[in-house]
From TrEMBL, chains A, B, C, D:
Alphabetical list of Gene3D superfamilies matching this protein: MazG-like
InterPro entries (UniProt xref): dCTP_Pyrophosphatase, DCTPP
Highest taxon of the lineage: Bacteria
GO annotation, biological process: nucleoside triphosphate catabolic process
Pfam families to which the protein is assigned, alphabetical: MazG-like
Protein name from the UniProt record: Putative pyrophosphatase
Species the sequence originates in: Desulfitobacterium dehalogenans (strain ATCC 51507 / DSM 9161 / JW/IU-DC1)
GO molecular function, one term: nucleoside triphosphate diphosphatase activity
Coiled-coil segments on the chain, per record: none
Length: 110, 110, 110, 110
């Protein structure tokens, strides 16, 4: 996800004077709504069926999740790259390769 | 979000042999769980209170949302930049600046 | 769900002086968090596996969903029986038996 | 929520031959989608604004949450009254009145 794309998302918001509504709590709620719209494609369906029939909506809803993630990060002052590298580092502690390889269990159950 | 970061996310998954579990339906469910963990920081709290007290967890949970978004996109074969530009273009049709400026209403109510 | 059970839920809240926090928006957020905790039992698992291994947590989280539903209804002034009968009546219009029998499609696709 | 209402919900399902789709995982996903639709009424709005403008949709979506809760409980074999009383009892241990009165903090922070 380019810096250029992030700039487009923020420009879209500012051209419409929407920043006034974008407090972190309502942005987190928005993220929740968009993820539900993505998940709806899989209701009563297997992954295969959903992906074969509903790619246009899946593309749209994942894009909404990413757009709101960018807006949330900007509202709170977070750098996407930094927080991801930090979390991968934490996950490496919780899920060391030798313990976690091939296992789906949560770290509390390893 | 660099290409380099996306590569780190996929490498983390593959070092642990986790791709076998990453079908799109369960990845969409995972996205839903992580967004709820982000939203939890705002339960019973204003944006201000949440941001002043819970930044470490907010950073962690937003990172999880981004990580699962990358894993989902890779599992389904979607390009993050493409789908975002496509959605911004659709949103421009639904929310033309002259109609939507300063308004929070959904496009169906404009 | 007895009237007696609903009374216990409200009494639990009032014994702890919690009504002051129970505005509808935060109660809707709470419902969202509890449903995610219920759904977590099914992450990476089939229905069969989740039900065979995680019934205690499933019981707990579904109870939380019901408890917050009762608290939300009380905060907004809704009667559970009334709103359910109203929705079943609406659903009967959207999903008449002759059109909907055996089909999982949304009414917009029938 | 009467036994009679629960019977109506199950009859509605069976008249339409829908039980075949109602595995617990997809019912948990459905609960997640309906809670999001309830929460949507509060996006960008205070509780007061949402309740003054959107009661019809709030009634509808809370009804859907209750309907899916009943369907989920029936699919898994849970008694609504039992699980609620059990959870209130657990909550009484986590949130004794003398420690929890007037406080919104999670039990881990009391």
């Amino acid at each position: 996800m380019d810096e250029r794309i992030i700039a487009e998302i923020l420009k879209f918001r500012d051209e419409r004077g929407w920043k006034q509504y974008h407090n972190p709590k309502d942005l987190a709620i928005s993220l929740s709504l968009e993820v539900a719209e993505l998940l709806e494609n899989f209701q009563w369906s297997s992954s295969e069926e959903a992906v074969s029939k509903r790619i246009p909506n899946i593309r749209e809803e994942l894009a909404d999740v990413l757009i709101y993630s960018v807006l949330f990060a900007e509202a709170v002052g977070l750098d996407l790259n930094d927080i991801i590298m930090e979390k991968l580092s934490m996950n490496n502690q919780k899920y060391p390769i030798e313990k976690a390889f091939g296992k789906k269990e949560k770290y509390t159950e390893l």
